[in-house]
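Changelog note: in this version the structure field was regenerated for every chain. One regenerated record is shown below for reference.
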Amino acid sequence: MHCHLRNGGLSRFFRVSPEGLRTLPDGNEKLAVCDEDGATKAAQARAAIRARLQPSEYNAAVLAQRLPAYVQLVRLDRPAGALLLLWPTLAALWLASGGVPGAGLLAAFVAGTFVMRAAGCVMNDIADRDFDPHVERTRNRPLAAGTVSVPEAAVLLAVLVAAGLAILLTLNMAARWYGAVAVVLIASYPFFKRFTHLPQAMLAITFGWGIPMAFAATTGAVSLTGWLLFGANALWIMAYDTIYAMVDRDDDVRVGVKSTAILFGSADVTAVRVFQIGAVLVLLVLGAQASLGLAWYLAVAAFGACFMRQQALIKNRERPACMTAFRNNAWAGLALFAGIAIDLALPAGNR
């Protein structure tokens, strides 16, 4: 339910209780003027969620009925984000292994990528449940729309974290230490947008942490090649997540969420270009340092071509075009991974 709140002359829309009071993200309680019918509907919705959580009611049939909402909560219906996490991680595995990694290691990192990405999405939605209803892109997420309750999401998060821990325990001790850091990063990231305009920088570290983990799991340490890949990936993430933030900028300003898109203002497109150029330059250095061949440099060229396409899309800052540009990064990541895989598959003399 949404009710009109008045706070110092400023009008906002927040979910409120039937009693008319709600603690807002800033921690203050505000008085809301609501119609009785709206309050009744909200109470009925909460009662329905509580009923779904009763053990006697929560059987296999109910679980099957709830499954689409859970799929949406963990973003299985939106694979672009998972692919943006997967391609650099696979690239790191191939580089660290000097070719195709072992089947067990590959399976662990593919599964871990999807499981921890899902956990991160649930954690993010729990943290942002008071903001998401007021942002056009996120208002239909399960927690924001009320189709999944916070207790349900918390249980799902616990299951995902347990699965991630089980996967982590199959890796060596060096990778486990990096994995412990990853848990802290994933848990911290959703809150950075509340106090800094650089949550994208935190995401760049968090989303790219699979790279040093992959090197540690393969060789026991992270080489210069690994850190160069991590750096290039961080610059790439700064670029595409700034594009992502451009989609939400107007809503974020209204609800008080911070981002690089807000920080850079009218220089946002230029900032994205700088990050993209930086990513390409670091990848070129990586190629020379790791003695990669033609296939790698062709892949970097394809990577850069994707950036040119994205620049054309975001120049007018239109929401649909910016979202298309963001999704184009999944293809950029595939190009990079393919370049590494093909290059390392060729005999050294034919590279």
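Spot check on this record: Residues 3-52 form one domain. The chain has 15 helices and four strands.
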